[in-house]
Amino acid sequence: MEAIKGRRSVREFRDGRIPDDHLMTVLEAAIWAPSGSNAQPWEFVVVRSRDTIEKIKLFSPGLFGDPDALVVLCVNKERVKGRGPKELVAVMDIAMAAQNMMLAAYSLGIGSCPIASFNKTAVKELLNIPEHVDPILMVSLGYPEKWPEPPRRRPLEEVVHHEKY
Fold it and tell me: Using alpha carbons only, how large is the chain's radius of gyration in Å?
């Protein structure tokens, strides 16, 4: 619960290189996310080049600060082809993989922020992502300048309904 309650969307990063083994731990956490029919539709493009991150920022209004790394989480459509509603489930799989990544990052003192506001076509072209793979979400990673305060949460009594709505 500490990681769940402590994780925040970090948008200001200080200088500091994330060790490769920590980055791999974060990525490994992602592949252990639940996946509908165990399709594991995810593909991850890790961007660490400052120049490439700066280019991505040009068409990503949701990307703030100067993260050390950017992970583009994609759905491999070949893995869910012909599965009907599984394509929608694949997007949920990506969201759960991203949450695992962010929780693992937090446990290592690494800040993160999920980013949905970006030009997917431009990212796809810049990173040479194949036609059958679609970028869905990005997660920025870096050492936080500071950990933001938690926002107010609606109380359980307001959001939990027992037996019926």
Answer: 17
Task: Name the 3-class secondary structure at 23.
Answer: helix
CA separation for the pair 143, 22 (Å, rounded): 12
Helix/strand/coil percent split, the chain, to 5: 40, 20, 40
Question: Among 128, 141, 126, which Cα is nearest to 71's?
Answer: 141
Answer yes or no: CATH 3.40.1190.20 is held by domain 2-143: no
As a whole number of angstroms, the distance between CA 51 and CA 81 comes to 35
Average pLDDT, the chain: 95
pLDDT 10s digits, 23-71? 999 999 999 999 998 999 999 999 999 999 999 999 999 999 999 999 9
Residues 118 and 161: their CA atoms lie apart, in Å, by 35
Q: How far apart are CA 35 and CA 82, in angstroms?
A: 16
Within 10 angstroms of residue 57's Cβ, the number of other Cβ atoms is: 18
Q: Are 75 and 136 spatial neighbours (Cβ–Cβ below 8 Å)?
A: yes
Tell me the C-alpha distance between 145 and 65, whole Å.
Answer: 10
Distance from C-alpha of 32 to C-alpha of 26, rounded to nearest angstrom: 10
Q: What pTM was computed for the model?
A: 0.94
CB 75 within 8 A of CB 133: yes
